[in-house]
Amino acid sequence: MKNLAIFDLDNTLLDGDSDHAWGEFLVTQGYVDGAYYEARNDKFYQDYKNGTLDINEYLEFALAPLTEHSMETLAQMHQQFMQDTIKPMLLNKAAALLDNHRQQGHFLLIITATNSFVTHPIAKLLDVDDILATDPEIIEGRYTGKIAGTPCFQEGKVARLNQWLTDNQYSLDGSYFYSDSINDLPLLEVVEKPVAVDADEKLIAIAQQRDWPLISLRDANQRIDT
Question: Which of 8, 19, 180, 184 is catalytic?
Answer without folding.
Answer: 8
